[in-house]
Amino acid sequence: MKKLIFAAITLLVGLTVLAGFFFSDQLGPTLTLIFEWGLVLVAVGGLVGMGYLAATHIRNIVQRKKGWIYSAVLLAAFLISMVAGFTLSLDNPFYRDLILNVQVPVETSLLAILAATLLYASLRLIRTRGWTPLTIAFMASAFFSLLFDLGLIRTASGTVGEQVVAFFQRLPLVGARGVLIGMGLGGLLMGLRFLFSINSSGGER
Amino acid sequence: MISGTVVWGVIGFLLTVMVLSYLIHDSLFFRLAAYLLIGLTAGYLVVLLVNRVILPHLIWPMAEASWSQRLWLLIPIVLGLLLLVGQIPRLAQLSRIPLAYVAGLSAAVAIGGAVFGTMVPQGQAVLEAFNPYRIYAEPQLVWVRILDAGVMILGVVGTLSYFHFGQPLKKINRTDERKRPKALQILSRIGEVFLGLTLGAIFAGVFSTALLALIDRIAVLGEMIGQFLGGL
Amino acid sequence: MAYLICPECGAHNPPEEEQCRICQTSLVGMEPVEEPAPPEGGEEELGLFNEEENDLPDLLQGLKLEDIEYEIDPEGLPEINLDDGLDSGEEEGRTPEWLDAVRKRAQVEDDSVGDLIKRVEAAQESVSGEDQEKHSDFESWIQKLRDEARDEAAGNAIAPEEPVDQAEPDAEVEPSKPEPEPTPGPEPEPGEEHSDWLTRIRKAHGIVDPEEGPNAASRSLLDWLVALEDNAPGEEDSPAIRDETQEIETGWERLPHEDITRQIKVVLEPRVTPQALNLTREESDQADLLSTIITDEKADHPVARRTYKVGVQWLNMLFLLILVVGISLALFTGGTAGLAQPQLSTGGAALMAWVDDLPEDADLLVVFDYQPAYTSEMSLVAEPILTSLTGWTVRVTVASSVASGPLLADELLTGAGLTYTDIGYFPMASYGGFGVATGLSTGQTAPGLPKPAQAMLGRGYDGVLVLSDNFEGAQTWIEQITARAPETPLGVLATSQAAPLLQPYFESGQIVGVLSGFSDAVALGDLSDSDSGLGPRWRAYQVGVLILMVALILGAVFAPAKRSSNRQRGDK
User: Fold this and answer.
1) Domain ranges of chain A
2) pTM of the prediction?
3) ipTM of the modeled complex
4) C10-16 long-range contacts, Cβ below 8 Å, gap at least 24?
5) Within an 8 Å CB–CB cutoff, is residue A89 touching chain C?
6) Domain-located, residue B75
7) Whether residues C453 and C555 fall in one domain
8) Is pLDDT at C86 greater than 50 in this prediction?
9) Rounded to a whole number, what is the distance in Å from the CA of C357 to chain B's nearest CA?
């Protein structure tokens, strides 16, 4: 009985939103209401998630688990940013600098490490994956994409060369379109499964 | 008086060095920087959610709105409370109601977006390539357009065939590939090539982005070292 | 006389019985079997089996399972009484009926007794030919057993069995030949009914005489056959085996006739039927998943460290050093000119054209959907667009679908000299796209909606500009606005990594343009002739890209022709 109630709620909300794609004028106000409630719920869910994060790390500290020092650092940063945020407000320049001047260097540096990792990977691409149509096409596409990106190949407008270069530049677009349509299919199927609550662990019912 | 810029610059420099030390070895400093980032971001997110969503969309309207408007607000309040109360293990079932709501909303938004936002327009674009008006718009490029259309439909169908047209992956194994009709196997091979082309382009893009981040960090480090040495 | 053979245990039951007397199996529908006619000219020469059934030892008589009285003792265990009258129906020279029953049982049952019986039969079949009488098969089976015992007993040959009375002293028994028919001896006394051949076999295998053992009375056929299979008599156990016929005293001869019948206790183990647990497939799957999750949670999850060989590590460090040194040299030395200037992409040009065509008092929604890590690239990409908007009376409205969006918007737009209105933060990009698209499509909001929500949803825009670092975030906005408000122009400013998968949306007309990556930013700067200070970075960028291209080529050139199947990931 309980499962029926949950499934009914999911179905009711989902079908209303889907109907809004077809009857947007008639259902516009209803959709804004549904959106508003969903927004609040997601925000509450986010707060619950942050609570879990804090609770987990507090437990690590209390139980002196391995790496509890890091949990202490995390909690300290958490408390400082939260207290400062509630005290100073989000629009305060100091608070903005505090957050951005930690986030930007750390996240940008993490992304910079990715450049080194990709360099290592490109050295071992064929060694790891072998010579397959996929890897050969991958390598060729990466090489020529970078070549075009550098501007080392320039063609005059209206020439055959321009058309040839444009043709080769469009080849990745073909696969991208297939990927997008495939993703759309997958999203549709997954959405239907959630909508009709067909998401058992076995995958099928 | 040390200006804020210098202070933040030094902090940024130290954090950059701490994180980039991972290239040499996974060290204590790298982990400290990572945990610092997570803690700071989590605290900021709490402030953001409360200040930009909960307060303006729920608390303040309850305080200021009319009684009829407050009735509407009762529903998200009740749902939110159910979500909070549902964290108690004994009352976990209660949280399923708001989660069912969110699941229905998310699923419907995803379905609508996938169908009307991607599948239909992209499918139309594939077919539009065969539009005679488009092909013959520029007489000198007719064959280019025809080739382009042919390659497009071949590549799209081949790529879809490679992914078994959206069939769940867990049902597919190597032997299934051999059981497929020959035409589909050939299409799948063609799709594999086009997929490789796309993934290669994405790889190049990711490296470009990461390289720019590395350049940015090296530039910042160089500037700080230059300022430090210049200050000396 | 006809009788019913039980399909389960092979027992012979009178034709009027509806249930088997031994195992209570229903006999309804069973056809009575007539006793086979005795062959003419009895085979008196069959030395192994006398006319009297009571010559057989108890265990072989137990095989007959004929005329067995089924008694229930106080313990609830049935006992099988072997009666002396078992021999009445048998005649000389015929296949004993009990043997028929036993064979039938062996064909249907898989229990140990049936299995052993099958083995025995197999041994029979291997020994006998098709023409042989069944009783001769049995003889050769016994002979085979004897031979096996002989072979096992320290390699000494067991003398062929001497019939009760006499046999050729040097007669050798070959398993393949039928037993020479011994001459019938004198009528054995009642006390000597048990054939001594069995006892000889037992002794040859060192098997405890049933009479002598602690459980002598209850030693079953099963035990005997098992023991026959398994026991390998040691030297001390095996009697002195000589190459000549010998008489083996079994002791059975000393027993009075009436003591031959023994009660063999057959213990029927109570059948324990486990409780059936009915589970649906879903429950079973969920239980499996739950146990997997519990096991996984309890397990340690050490960080998987990819280990490289030393040479690989040095190679990696070398290339990293080349990359860093090359970038540093390009950044901090030399002029501002790069190797080549890039061309503006088609999508970038289209976006610029659209921005240029915007009315001066346009209402523009700018969505911030990128993380702080991409601040440098997004700043480079967005700056030309935003700079072109300054000086206009464009109303800029800002929405964020990432946590850092409000902060990044403040930094970017304030730095570009633009004023804006922040309508809020969407925790999920799909919700933001849906909400904005709803407002764009209907322009209506619910009456009881809070003012911030009305500000979010109740406005129309002349255009939407999405600043995104990844394909998924931009795709969400594109999908929602395309599906609900396709007439609203949508432009995208993206990083290089998002660009390849956004091109189809531009090519299909869903977005008016996409400006992506450092190369587009440099091309725009080049077009506008603005001194944006991008020269050193562009040169450093080119050096880094060239190093990657070289790494790709080297990786392909020095790759083996075939991928080793033994190689693990991360190994050289």
Assistant:
1) 1-87, 89-123
2) 0.68
3) 0.91
4) C10/C65, C10/C98, C10/C100, C10/C101, C10/C102, C10/C103, C10/C104, C10/C105, C11/C65, C11/C66, C11/C68, C11/C101, C12/C65, C12/C66, C12/C67, C12/C97, C12/C98, C12/C101
5) no
6) yes
7) no
8) no
9) 25
